[in-house]
Design brief:
This protein is of the alpha+beta class. The protein has two domains: 104 residues, Beta Polymerase, domain 2 (2-Layer Sandwich); 119 residues. Helix content is 58%, strand content 10%. A four-stranded mixed sheet has the order 3-2-1-4. The longest helix is centred in the middle third of the chain and has 26 residues. It is globular and about 55 Å long. The model has no long low-confidence stretch (mean pLDDT 94).
């Protein structure tokens, strides 16, 4: 019988303990698995690893293990030094806020227990990320507008990034942030003022692993692009702290 995603995550945490026993501080599971939205064949397992030493010799000890983990379809563990971790909330406020809201400790102490994310840092990174991803989406649309299959891949592939940004927008607006993707879409649509249906359709296609082949002028495509544009405008209008 195939192992559950939590069994795989705990097994990997055990290998991290064996490999980095003398320098390992914490192992944290985050992402869809921590939010209770893990989907086999769609989601991957995201791991944050804090070490007392991140020098080349120390990192090399886990190279083979990391390659095996990546071959299973997971990203390499996110490794930070324990000291640099405590100084990084201002550099990665979106990531810190999102992981802080949903994570599971697989080893050691909770590194998020005393983390405070500055709202202004969060707003600035959100604006930067949204505008950058909007530009990338336009570039992708320009290249795939006459190719429905590739256009569908673009929409589905960009969805998870925008979902993180929708959660960030809700945090900035002081709104409740659900772990459920459909609830997040609905609340963001209500706050920002866009039609949630195109995003729901893309979410369902992603979950079902069903390719979509929309035309460039279809409501799915125009609605998705409009939702992104309206979200960018919404964040632009948020007051600075």
């Amino acid at each position: 019988m195939a192992k559950s995603y939590m069994e795989r995550a705990n097994a990997f945490a055990g290998r991290l303990r064996d490999t980095y026993a003398d320098v390992l501080v914490s192992v944290v599971l985050y992402g869809s698995a921590a939010r209770g939205e893990f989907e086999e064949g769609v989601s991957d397992l995201n791991m944050l690893v804090l070490l007392r030493d991140t020098g080349p010799a120390t990192l090399r000890r886990g190279s083979g293990m990391a390659r095996e983990w990546a071959k299973q379809g997971n990203p390499p563990p996110l490794i930070l030094g324990a000291d640099e971790w405590s100084r990084s909330a201002d550099a990665f406020p979106i990531e810190f806020a999102d992981i802080q809201a949903a994570h599971r400790i697989l080893h050691g102490a909770d590194p998020f227990a005393d983390v405070v994310v500055d709202r202004e840092h969060l707003r600035l990174q959100c604006e930067h990320e949204l505008k950058g991803k909007q530009i990338q989406l336009r570039e992708g649309f320009l290249l795939t507008a006459e190719q429905p299959k590739e256009l569908g891949t673009l929409l589905v592939g960009s969805f998870s990034t925008f979902l993180v940004l929708f959660r960030t927008v809700l945090r900035l607006a002081g709104a409740p942030v659900s772990h459920d993707a459909e609830d997040t879409i609905a609340e963001a649509a209500r706050r920002v003022g866009f039609d949630p249906e195109p995003l729901r359709e893309i979410l369902l296609a992603r979950r079902a692993k069903t390719p979509i082949k929309p035309k460039a002028d279809s409501p799915l495509v125009t609605g998705y692009l409009d939702a992104v544009a309206r979200t960018v405008e919404f964040v632009d209008r948020l007051p600075a702290a």
